[in-house]
């Protein structure tokens, strides 16, 4: 009898974090299935190429995923592995997010060579982050700090800190943990101070809707609790029509049969910060996200977001 081997090709960006995530999925697929061979198909995306412009100004949803999606639609790849936080809320026809893997630590991390925490930074210290969500929350906590744009992949950002261009930088803890640099995390920033982005720390897998063979292979990688949390968080963003470059935080926790979802919309200068939360049954995770978005809209989130889009 001949043994048939199934081939799964992963479209991936070439950054260290993207490659780590692709290798992680490859290892998981090979662990669960003896008859599967996995190949990485590395490629560059628009987001990797345009490096000198603040992300908020390039706008364009899905800057980091379009090329990967085209590869799947063309049949050059079977799956794409994404940081959930960078995945647009809508998918092109024929593709869907099929799998959400177990979440890594979702918190933001404070990274500095000289100071132990945000509170310990001296007046006027220079803090690097290109995320509007981090900017507005840090401005609120510490209006005296000088917050400056910080682009590039995780290693580039760390190099800029080590060069002395910043007193501290803020990154997703998950990226540092995955790249085996947990010692670079000077302090975790709790969600009460910096509410994470929707999906932060979670890896998702996209594939063609009609590819039943691949979908069956992906089934054991699915993590139910992460799926519930990320569904609630993404539903809030979707209702707010927020892409990934917006001052929006969304963070869900599951406690038994209940989901607790916190949301935030902030003016970039930190002058206005809207926060709210909802709790409800796990089965209603997405509806909770929509309800929370509507509560925030009632408080004036639409006006704040309209201003962000106008300025961008
Ligand atoms: N926007 C870039 C990006 N996308 C995912 C991560 C980190 C890992 C994750 O959240 O899963 C990062 C880096 C960062 O925000 O510091």
Automatic annotation (TrEMBL):
GO cellular component: cytoplasm
Function: Tetrapolymerization of the monopyrrole PBG into the hydroxymethylbilane pre-uroporphyrinogen in several discrete steps.
Subunit relationships: Monomer.
GO terms classed as biological process: protoporphyrinogen IX biosynthetic process
The organism's taxonomic lineage, starting at the top: Bacteria, Pseudomonadati, Pseudomonadota, Gammaproteobacteria, Alteromonadales
Top-rank taxon: Bacteria
Modified sites of kind S-(dipyrrolylmethanemethyl)cysteine: 244
Enzymatic class: transferase
Residues of the Porphobilinogen deaminase C-terminal domain: 229-297
Further information: The porphobilinogen subunits are added to the dipyrromethane group.
Cofactor remark from the record: Binds 1 dipyrromethane group covalently.
GO terms of molecular function: hydroxymethylbilane synthase activity
Similarity annotation: Belongs to the HMBS family.
Known EC number: 2.5.1.61
Species annotation: Pseudoalteromonas lipolytica
Limits of the Porphobilinogen deaminase N-terminal domain: 8-215
Pathway the protein contributes to: Porphyrin-containing compound metabolism; protoporphyrin-IX biosynthesis; coproporphyrinogen-III from 5-aminolevulinate: step 2/4
UniProt keywords, alphabetically: Porphyrin biosynthesis, Transferase
Reaction equations catalysed: 4 porphobilinogen + H2O = hydroxymethylbilane + 4 NH4(+)
InterPro entries: HemC (IPR000860), Porphobilin_deaminase_cofac_BS (IPR022419), Porphobilin_deaminase_N (IPR022417), Porphobilinogen_deaminase_C (IPR022418), Porphobilinogen_deaminase_C_sf (IPR036803)
Needed co-factor(s): dipyrromethane
UniProt name for this protein: Porphobilinogen deaminase
């Amino acid at each position: 009898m001949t043994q048939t081997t199934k081939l799964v090709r992963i479209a991936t960006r070439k950054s260290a974090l993207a490659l780590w995530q692709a290798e992680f999925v490859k290892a998981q697929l090979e662990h669960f299935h003896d008859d599967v061979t996995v190949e990485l198909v590395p490629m560059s995306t628009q987001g990797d190429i345009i490096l000198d412009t603040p992300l908020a100004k390039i706008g364009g949803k899905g800057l980091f995923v379009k090329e990967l999606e085209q590869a799947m639609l063309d049949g050059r790849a079977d799956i794409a592995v994404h940081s959930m936080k960078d995945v647009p809320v809508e998918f092109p026809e024929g593709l869907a997010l099929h799998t959400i893997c177990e979440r890594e630590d979702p918190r933001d991390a404070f990274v500095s060579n000289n100071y132990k925490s945000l509170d310990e930074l001296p007046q006027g210290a220079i803090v690097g982050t290109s995320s509007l969500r981090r900017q507005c929350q840090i401005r609120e906590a510490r209006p005296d700090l000088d917050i400056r744009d910080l682009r590039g992949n995780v290693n580039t950002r760390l190099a800029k800190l080590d060069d002395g261009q910043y007193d501290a930088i803020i990154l997703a803890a998950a990226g540092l943990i995955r790249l085996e640099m947990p010692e670079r995390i000077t302090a975790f920033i709790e969600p009460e101070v910096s509410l994470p982005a929707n999906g932060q720390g979670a890896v998702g897998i996209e594939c063609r809707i009609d590819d039943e063979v691949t979908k069956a292979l992906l089934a054991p990688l699915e993590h139910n609790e992460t799926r519930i949390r990320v569904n609630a968080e993404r539903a809030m963003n979707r209702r707010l029509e927020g892409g990934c470059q917006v001052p929006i935080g969304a963070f869900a926790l599951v406690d038994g049969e209940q989901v607790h979802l916190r949301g935030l919309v902030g003016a970039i200068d930190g002058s206005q910060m809207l926060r709210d939360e909802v709790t409800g049954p796990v089965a209603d995770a997405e509806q909770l996200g929509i309800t929370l978005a509507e509560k925030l809209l009632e408080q004036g989130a639409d006006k704040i977001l309209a201003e962000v889009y106008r300025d961008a």
